Amino acid sequence: MSNYSEEATNFIVHHYTQNPTKECVEELAEIYQRSTKSIIGKLAREGVYQRQSYKTKSGNDPVTKADLVADIVAYLNLDENLVAGLEKAPKQALKAILESIQTPS
Fold first, then answer.
1. Could you read off the pLDDT tens digit of each residue along the chain, which spans 105 residues?
2. Domain that holds residue 72
3. Does residue 50 form part of some domain?
4. Is residue 32 part of a domain?
5. Which residues of 18-41 are buried (b: 16+ CB within 10 A; e: fewer)?
6. SS3 annotation, 17-73
């Protein structure tokens, strides 16, 4: 059972393009009694697979400490060399600093 029929391929592609989620892939895997990796591989070969992006526990896009430091440097118009090592500070502290300088007094 290594190949998909043309009919199965069309169904998989159509179903996935209507609902490109992990749940849809799992449902297709169950319907065709294949692994989710097999379905993902088929969708990728057909050029329609959309990789799910990582989200934090709160549902936001991840932000690195380097990104936070770059925003602080840009907002305060500082020389990056003056704040070398700031990215080693706790992430919550960097977020607090950035929020504080962006909030009007």
1. 458 999 999 999 999 999 999 999 999 999 999 999 999 999 999 999 988 777 788 877 888 999 999 999 999 999 988 999 999 999 999 999 999 998 876
2. 65-102
3. no
4. yes
5. eeeeeebbebbbeebebeeebbbe
6. HHCCCHHHHHHHHHHCCCCHHHHHHHHHHCCCCCCCCCCCCCCCCCCCHHHHHHHHH
> What phi and psi values does residue 51 have, to the nearest 5 degrees?
-65, 135
User: What is the domain count for the chain?
Assistant: 2
Cα gap 83→74, rounded to integer Å: 12
Cα separation values, 38 from 33, 48, 68, 89, 91, Å: 10, 14, 39, 43, 39
- Tokens 């962006």 identify what position? 102
Give SS3 for 81: helix
